[in-house]
Amino acid sequence: MTMQFNRRILLRGLGGAVVAAPFLSSLWERSARAQTAAVPKRTIVMFTHYGCITNKWFPNKLDGELTAADLTPTSLAALAPFAKKLLMPRGIRTMNEWTANNTGAGKGRGQGNDSHTQIAGSIFTCQPVTPNSNDPFSFEDPKFKAMPVGPSLDHVMAKQLSPQGTPLFMNVAGQSKELAQSAISYSAAETIFTALNATQAYSNLTGLFKSDMPMNADTWAVSKGKAITDIVKGDLSRLMSKDMSKADKDKLAAWMELANSVGKVVASAACNQQLAMTLGASNKLGSGSGDAVTRKVNDSMDNADLYSAIAALTAACNANPVIFLKYPNNFTYTGLGINAESHNQSHRLADPSMQGPCVAGAVENLIKIDTYYAQKFANLVKMLDSMTEGDGTVLDNTVAVWMNEMSDGNAHNLNNSPIIQAGGGGGYFKTGRVVNLDAASGATPEQMLGRSMSQCVEGTPQTSNGVSQGTGTESKFGNAPVNKYFVNIMNAMGMKADAQGYPAKDGPSSEVTHYGYSDKTEDFAGGKGAVAGATIHNPGGFTELKA
Amino acid sequence: MTTPAGACGVLSLSALTLHQGQTNTELYAALKNIGGTPACSPAFSVTVFDKAENAVATGIAGVLVRRFYRLVDGSNTLAACVGPGDVSLLSIRDLPAELVIDDVGRLEYRCTFWALDVVPAGSLSVADVRSVPSESGVTFTGSLVNGLDVALDTPSVAVFSLNRVGRPLSVALAAGDAQLPPGKSWDFETNPVNDAGVEQAAYPTSGP
User: Chain B residue with minimal CA distance to A349?
Assistant: First the structure.
């Protein structure tokens, strides 16, 4: 805030908007320190299915500085130039793991539904799915159709943070219809949220700007949903905290009501057509031969990059601070020279049978896919880092995370989850670090490379066995709950919580401490309510990740 | 009908029907295990594309089986499997009601199943299936026989009406509320359907 000669207090918003508060005589005699407007923050999650070849994905390091040299020998080599802005949380487990022993409460590591159905349903909700199955090998319909009993993280966050109340959720293969076997975005219990394709997502943004002119805040404000007082909420909160007369409080309250009834708000002044073109977001999707993801848009980008460009543009324009980018399930990456479907490939097989003689070249193909995904994430990171914002870049004020459905796709194990983050969320997170969040397990870096290459590689058994989980990381390692990481992200974004610490719009608490049904995967066995005492056993975020 | 290479493994689609039901669009399919090993915990999923190649609907169902097997790993775990040479049926009865069948361009289908080290453990069989005319159409009666060594908590069956070449046309359902012990049978009568077909094929819809 600044005090002006005309005695009006000016409140500044995220995108450079300036709003004059009413004259408050009881504050006139006081001086206010000049405050810079809050810098916007956003979260972008890139999600891929079927795990990875962990031995090649993870660097051989559990804790310490993350360097380009650590990443260069791995599938993540494309991210090496950004090492200083990356954060690799090691030792995290996601919830509701499928095993052959999941036969009810007290048995196994989760529900006995279809493996992909329960994993996809629980990964961002941290909720069990319903209806429950206690029979991992049954044939009954409901086990394949089960959906989570609560909303997913993107919707929980968007409800508080997004102007529209919903996230920007895109599927980079344009898959608009998903089954519970692969769906990750749930707007409410048992309610799958439909992804947008590139055309739909871009057209939602084009109300922001016309030609080369910065956007007109009032014009866009009418069509989008955020209150005037929301954009200046940082300055407004500071103003409201001051000791003022009742008359001035009443005047301010009346002014807020008037301001909000007039219209809504806005995006960054840097958000314009030129930016869209520079990022490549205004390009048309590539058509023709090849697969829908790797098909070329031009010499420097493919369709997946186009989706990333739209995500970056959305972030830069502050159009939606919650963005999820989902890569497809059951996909054949012919553009990478792979003619086998991704799910079968993850089992190192020629078909979906989960167990059998290895297909030659399966592991090499999986590494190729992992490397491709890493390049796509690196391209997204580069886009975000190419745009200045405040004292840094858009990336610095973003939490961009690549998460995978599982650790090893054959074992379906959820411990030792492959997660890589870029951006510090506006100074909330450490960067340039690997952080071991499950040091208590005593795992060595070598053990935490996992066992993805213990089958179907020269010199190893040539039979793939998903039931034994032999290609997964040993189950006693890498079990720090993902719930805590999601809490970190929500707190980085400045979300509110209720009195119990669960995210709640307009909640009394400024710190989220709880997320989901439980932070122990065993609590999911038998479904909701089956395990007594299922709860968040270890609330709060990971302090080790905080700057 | 299309399927990506390897998408169904040993399960070969031999028949499929898509039709407008009373409340939803319904799909019935017949799959045959053309391989030499059981296909366990099988499921069938389908994506419906219109003539403009837009995905307009998706659906999934468990493939109904009669045979059960035990894992040889010492866990005594039972698995429901389509045995080698067996034909199994399935029904997806929750495709959108507004789906216009004439606008369907193609269906893309996939299967999932486990190929496990198992030995036979018995079966659930359905005997004496008869069609019974009723005011609302045709119902089916019969007996579900528990040939396993464990009880069924909630026995239930599906009876498919078939045309003369074995294509499923509709399905009728019945569910019991009492446990069915090993070796015992449960007499059922299904809900009515319009068409009894030329013959019927009946399957349990729940296992132990």
Answer: B6
